[in-house]
Amino acid sequence: MDWILLLEQTLNGLQFGLMLFLLAAGLTLVFGIMDMINLAHGSLYMVGAYLAATLLAYTGSFTVAVLGALAGTALFGALLEVSLLRTLYQRDHLTQVLATFALILIINEGTRIIWGSQALLLNAPDALSGPVELFPGLTYPAYRLLIIGVGLAVAVALYLLVAHTRVGMLVRAGASNREMALTMGVNVKRLFTAVFATGAALSALAGAMLGPLLAVQVGMGESILILAFVVIVIGGIGSIRGALVGALLVGFVDTLGRTLLPMSLRSVLPPMVASNLGPALASILIYVLMAAVLFWRPQGLFPARG
Amino acid sequence: MRTTTRLAAFLTAACLAGAVQAADPVKVGFLSTLSGPSAAIGLDIRDAFELAVKLNGGKLGGLPAQVIVADDQMNPDVAKQLIERLLKRDRVDIVTGIVFTNVMLAVAPAVFESKTFLVSANSTPAAYSGEGCSPWFFSTSWQNDGVHEAGGKFMQDSGYKSVVLVAPNYPAGKDALTGFKRFYKGTVIDEIYTKLGQLDYAAELAQIRAARPDAMYVFLPGGMGVNFVKQYVASGLNKTIPLVGPGFSADEDLIKAVGEPMVGMYNTSHWAHDLDNAANKRFVTEFQKAYGRLPTLYASQGYDAAQLIDAAIRDVKGKIEDKDALRKALRAANFKSVRGDFKLNVNGVPIQSYYLRRVVKEPSGRITNKLQATVLSAHPDAYVGACKLK
Amino acid sequence: MTALHHSLLPRVALPALALLAAFPLVMQAIDQPFYIVLATRILIFALAASSLNLLIGFGGMVSFGHAAFFGTGAYTVGILMVHGVESAWIAWPAAVLMSALAALLIGAISLHTRGVYFIMITLAFAQMIYYVFVSLKAYGGDDGLTLAGRSQIGFGVDLASDVVFYYVVLAIVATLLVLLGRLVNARFGRALQAIRENETRAQAIGFPAYRYKLACFVLGGAMAGLAGVLIVNQNELASPNLLHWMQSGMLMIMVILGGVGFLYGGALGALVLLLLEETLSEYTIHWQLGVGLVLLAVVLFAPNGLLSLARRRTAGG
């Protein structure tokens, strides 16, 4: 077993998982507290990436671009919440699916109208576009290390926010028992808007950070959205801790599965079969994981609802 | 989605003038990938095609041209619906464009069945070059294996003893690596097939690093290539394992995305913007003037597609209903291609030369490809032998 | 909420059927054959959406993995054809059977969960099926499986003709909608709706909820499989997109748009959505924006679907 390969893949899994966490955190809070299925969550991720790419092109500073993307998307999210999404909280899930799906179409097309159909260029800052030698034998892209750093920092910050502040307490109360929280006089409207805007900002951060690795294009949200849903189901709806654990699980299983499975299959099965089976199994792995978790713990790993 | 270029003014003037016979426009269905990460390819081909038509006064072969543009979104399903619309509702005379092979395989049967000519400006799969060749199929690009055969020869000649190959897991990807191995006789340590449309290559790059080849050959068109090269540079692998690719993996769009780290990369192509012939010089100048950027090799194919159609229609004096005559005219390819010598084989696929290019930084600071040498001369494709057409 | 009896609305349905029957002849007369192809597509999706409506609207089961059955039906026909089986009489029933089987397996497991977890687990299973088919390079993989031609029916019925194919599809879809109407008005359908309204109570009365729901799930899956058979014949292409979760989402949108729990909800939703797509895309590249706005309007003004508007206008509700 090539240790370098294993280590590198572990780091990749960590990186992927932390980005998934950023997306899942917002999604799980919105679902948990406002009981709303928001299919357009991936669109916020996309908007974040687009804003970052545009700001980078204008200012040349990656930091400004990312911060600007955060602020812009948070504002966009808040506006959406106040104008449209607020009316959906009372509705049934199917109506929410319809409305947020419509939002996906509108936001996607709107993005295409403003920025065109081609993918935008978003490059990592020059200082970070090269490799870093972690130890002799393993060089790892500096930018991915940055992502890991940012992801961990956000995770810590969120934990502190939720567990040690008053706002966090309100959020947890709302997630575990909304009606009770309402009765106790929590200013629901403002809390909801704040939660939504924060979720939007987190998605934007993921979008802006992943932009240089992936492609900033219309539709980029949909492909990652489904993974975010898988994460929150595994983690438990409404729980940030669950989102983190779920995201890391998914990140590791997916990344390691993609390399290790085809490799190990190839050593025991004839190459034709292995080359068919390997990628299939690797892709299915997270869904099998989710099904397994749901069997063992139907409410997810850390259900917020008491 | 369609953009119709209607030249009503021209037609009215022509009718009024009376001197020119009131000609029916020739309808061209342009089906290409215009959105998504690889949209740049389709957009380039479209821009070049429309430029050629414009330079021709809005005509193809003397007939006013109506170009109906449709976006297949790199999705065979969507393409199927669009081709039905183009063939049955818009009743196009010629279908062109077609970037990706998965789209090509989905729509070509319908085009052939409706007895419509298909002038591919990119995808030229083995499926339609050999046994499955069709009298309705023409290509102004290169048989899918072509540039990869040149790549294989170049790497063989350069003395790389072991390589790792990367391609997406779809027909053109497999064609590519087959073509490469036809001319490369060293050791292929690994053939890595990635998912079509995949954007994060961390896993594959780790694998390549672990395999320790002398060099690697990578076929990843469009957005996939952009990401791979960016991540290849980011991982530091560019310092230890040289990357050789087909021309479009090192073309203008990639250079714009990746920039200086790409300097030194070799690539093989059937066209270079510094090829020395009159048609090419005009094309490159006009393209830059119209769009403010250098054309990619895809654009050159789109331009030639328009020229081929133009020459053929002119040869049959506008009588495009006579399909047999039009076919003969298309086969004759009586025009000056931007790549210099251009001949079509019996299967409708070009016989052409393949060149070696290298990404260099010019004294002016501009980073672009420079023609280095000819790798394969007047090279027919590998499948024409199995084609039963004469 | 919804009425207990779901009329097939013969006063509206019969004239509609007559119009549909005359449609190809009219299109041929004005030399617009393309619209026959479009109409066929709408009919096929009407069937697919109606099969999902059976699950969501009548069974109360929000399945986000319905595309799995749609695609399985399509791929079964495709794979059989690769191996030389072209006869519709073998391939079509086989495809419906495969879809039913898939629905049985997926339903048997998923129906042990509730609410959003049910949604997610049906989605998960659909994704698994998607990835399995995509990985089968022998059967097209990512690019899909091209069919050599449409299925063979024999008796002089040549499906290669768009008009003939249209009539076959119309016959099948009309028959199935009638059957659907009979089903929901029969004991089975009423029991199902009772279970949907209040499962504990229905169970207490003596209806084995799980079994009824599973039966409903399998029937819906089989119907979707039949729709898949038709779509693969129309396109002559079995594409992995048929299995993708976006396809499941599309079908769900059609059902919600038309009216969940209304007999013709799926059909109407399919008609409106596909027509909207077709007409808008003629005017602008950005037709998806138009579709999104229309859907939002429906959410705001006709929250229970378009058919709920009709109900509001007629007495009571």
Distance between the termini of chain B: 38 Å
Give me the number of helical elements of chain C. 13
Low-confidence stretches of chain B: 1-21
First-last Cα distance of chain C? 8 Å
Write down the secondary-structure element order of chain B: HEHEEHEHEEHEHEHEHEHEHHHEEE
Shape of chain C: globular
Secondary structure class of chain B reads alpha/beta
Helix content of chain C: over 70%
Largest sheet of chain C: 2 strands, antiparallel
SS content category of chain C: mainly alpha
DSSP summary, beta strand count of chain C: 2
Residue-averaged pLDDT of chain C, rounded?
A: 88
Name the helicity range of chain B: 25-40%
Labels describing this entry:
heterotrimer; B: 390 residues; eight-stranded mixed β-sheet; six-stranded mixed β-sheet; 14 strands; globular; C: mainly alpha; two-stranded antiparallel ribbon; 73% helix
Walk me through the structure.
The complex is a heterotrimer of chains A (306), B (390) and C (317). By secondary structure, chain A is mainly α. Chain A contains 11 helices and 2 strands. In chain A, 75% of the residues lie in helices and 3% in strands. Chain A starts with a helix and ends in a 10-residue tail after the last helix. Chain B is an alpha/beta fold. Chain B has helices at 8-17, 39-55, 76-89, 101-113, 146-158, 171-183, 202-211, 222-234, 252-258, 278-291, 297-315, 323-332, and strands spanning 26-32, 59-60, 63-71, 94-97, 117-120, 137-139, 162-168, 187-194, 215-218, 243-246, 266-269, 343-344, 350-361, 367-379. In chain B, the strands form 2 sheets. In chain B, strands 7, 8, 9, 10, 11, 12, 13 and 14 form an 8-stranded mixed sheet that branches. Residues 1-21 of chain B have low confidence and may be disordered. Helices cover 73% and strands 1% of the residues of chain C. A two-stranded antiparallel ribbon of chain C has the order 1-2. The longest helix of chain C is centred in the last third of the chain and has 27 residues, at 209-235. Chain C is globular. In chain C, 52% of the residues are buried. At the A-C interface, helix 4, helix 9 and helix 11 of A face helix 5, helix 10 and helix 12 of C.
